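From the methods appendix. Each design record in this collection lists the tokenized structure first, followed by the designed amino acid sequence. Records were kept in a plain field format so they could be parsed without special tools. The example shown here is representative of the layout used throughout.

RECORD:
FOLD TOKENS (258 positions):
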């Protein structure tokens, strides 16, 4: 009886280990090709990179990823989730690729495999008070940022900030500035530019870069063959003018890393 129990226990453990292992099993590019479509996750709350126009997911990164899928010879399926769920879902093999303006950091690179960067940018300081422009000006100030972002990590490093208020969406972090609940908001330079243009009455002013970063898509840690295919597709759209066309449509300039 005891032996039977021990054997059953061992079997259950082996089964659980198998499940865990298969859960971490990312789809190879061959699997994706056979299936015919790549599953891509993004946030959908970060205009003009990834956002909803009504019920339609659109933006620079959405068009870029769709053009890359075409080069890879596969269709695509989008998943839109909260920012903090995106990289975690790669580990659980819930999608093949994430494109949501993630800056390449050492910390993230421990958990996922980054592709080559699809644009270069950085976090800027936005305030209504024109005297708040630089990192030094953040002394004693209350700052809003989206949680889980490099903006949060970099604002935390600034000495003598009074408080960092975090929000699940970048749009809420912006609203906090517009309604006067914080002194400054830190977000992406191109997001800030578009926000300022869309809200001329808001009185927001763009200050300096707090830091710069390279933005890339990510795949499951160790799925280098898939990352390689994505890199090839990115290089192809950068070589044939597709990238430039999409970039100029959204930003009036080519924002690839130089
Ligand atoms: N670039 C920043 C980071 O790497 C922010 C990304 C925010 N993306 C988004 N889809 N809200 O953390």
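DESIGN:
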């Amino acid at each position: 009886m005891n032996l039977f129990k021990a054997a059953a226990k061992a079997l259950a453990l082996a089964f659980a280990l198998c499940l865990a292992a298969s859960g971490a099993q990312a789809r190879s590019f061959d699997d994706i090709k056979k299936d015919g479509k790549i599953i891509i996750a993004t946030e959908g709350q970060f205009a003009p990179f990834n956002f909803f126009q009504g019920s339609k997911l659109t933006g620079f990164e959405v068009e870029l990823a769709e053009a890359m899928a075409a080069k890879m010879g596969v269709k695509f399926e989008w998943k839109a989730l909260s920012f903090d769920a995106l990289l975690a879902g790669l580990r659980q093999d819930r999608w093949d690729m994430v494109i949501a303006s993630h800056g390449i950091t050492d910390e993230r690179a421990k958990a996922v495999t980054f592709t080559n960067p699809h644009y270069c940018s950085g976090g800027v300081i936005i305030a209504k008070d024109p005297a708040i422009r630089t990192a030094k000006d953040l002394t004693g100030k209350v700052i809003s940022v989206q949680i889980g972002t490099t903006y949060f990590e970099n604002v935390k490093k600034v000495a003598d900030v009074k408080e960092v208020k975090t929000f699940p969406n970048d749009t809420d972090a912006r609203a906090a500035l517009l309604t006067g609940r914080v002194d400054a908001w830190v977000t992406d330079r191109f997001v800030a530019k578009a926000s300022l243009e869309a809200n001329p009455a808001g009185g927001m002013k763009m200050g300096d870069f707090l830091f710069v970063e390279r933005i890339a898509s990510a795949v499951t840690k160790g799925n280098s063959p898939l990352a390689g295919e994505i890199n090839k597709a990115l290089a192809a759209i950068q070589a044939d003018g597709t990238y430039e066309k999409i970039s100029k449509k959204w930003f009036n300039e080519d924002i690839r890393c130089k």
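APPENDIX NOTE: Residues 18-23 have pLDDT under 50 and may be disordered.
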